[in-house]
Amino acid sequence: MPLLTTPFDRDSTADDVLAGVDLHGRTALVTGGSSGVGAATSRALAAAGARVVLAARGLAAAREAAARITAETGNALVTAAPLDLSVPGSVRAFVRAWEGPLHLLVNNAGVMALPTLDRTPRGWERQFATNHLGHFALATGLRPALAAAGGARIAALSSTGHFASPVVFDDINFAHRPYDPFAAYGQSKTADALFAVGAGSRWAADGIAAHAVMPGGIKSPLQRYAFGPDMDEQARAVYTSYPWRRADQGAATSVLAVASPLLDGVTGLYLQNCQEAPVIDPARAAREPEPFGVAAWARDTEAAERLWDVSTAAVS
Predict the structure, then answer these.
(1) Which residues are catalytic?
(2) Which residues contact 138 (CB under 8 A, 6 or more apart)?
(3) Which pTM does this prediction carry?
(4) What's the pLDDT tens digit per position in 221-246?
(5) What share of the chain is helix, strand, coil (3-state, %, to 5)?
(6) Of residues 32, 75, 43, 81, the one with CA closest to residue 59
(7) Cα 149 to Cα 138: distance, rounded to the nearest angstrom
(8) Residue partners of 83: CB distance under 8 A and separation at least 6
(9) pLDDT (tens digit, 9 = 90+) per residue, 66-110?
(10) How far apart are CA 259 and CA 274, in angstroms?
(11) Which of 44, 171, 228, 306 falls between 20 and 30 A from 13, CA-CA?
């Protein structure tokens, strides 16, 4: 089956993708919506008329971002809400407080390359817990709201970092293998992609579509551990040679996933540069600064099913 293509590309902006799209009457939730690609995604959705909820750990920063977006777009239906994805109680409280249908869910927030092994009180490696389990609990908890929307869509933000590791089911939490910051990050981003595979098939009957999104590299606080002020020569070489893009360009693929009519009736894709990405060899990905493609392990339906079972047990 041919890959899905669109008129947009790596240089397209979120406003380009949403030109002519009317989102009045629709509600969007963007995690990590106060900065970086999350803020750009939120602004573009608000500019198209959506009611947008910015969910973030830092409520003050989220409120400032919401006020800024309202000032820029004239959309007064932009609000902020507290959400810490690494704390199950915070996710449960957020879900309990949600009212009404949810049309667009952008699982955008995340942490990257924590320098030392850190586990949550429940024993889960912090990046896996935040990037995947928190979003899994959020999405499954909000499933009734998504189903009530009729034609809801989810974007699960992955990364080319997923090439660093599949989900290592026998040792997700690095109990028996040396901790590696990028392997842990990669595992969590593979899990995000597999969530879209699982939700795309499981929730299609509810009219809910789910896609994995690789937004591209945007300079933001996300890289503070990977590329901090004390980065070594190797890290600096990667940082200076990486093909960074602007936040509004990174947001283009996210808004394509959740709001473009070009994806009506489609679910379960891995999207990059506003296109469906092909499956490629991780060895090839290692040779390119920003490879266009996805590893087979992030599209594996059996792994998606196994992860769904693991995640369901973890958030119960």
Answers:
(1) 185
(2) 31, 83, 85, 91, 94, 95, 105, 107
(3) 0.94
(4) 665 556 555 545 555 555 666 777 99
(5) 45, 15, 40
(6) 81
(7) 16
(8) 31, 55, 56, 57, 90, 91, 94, 109, 138
(9) 999 999 999 999 999 999 999 999 999 999 999 999 999 999 999
(10) 12
(11) 228
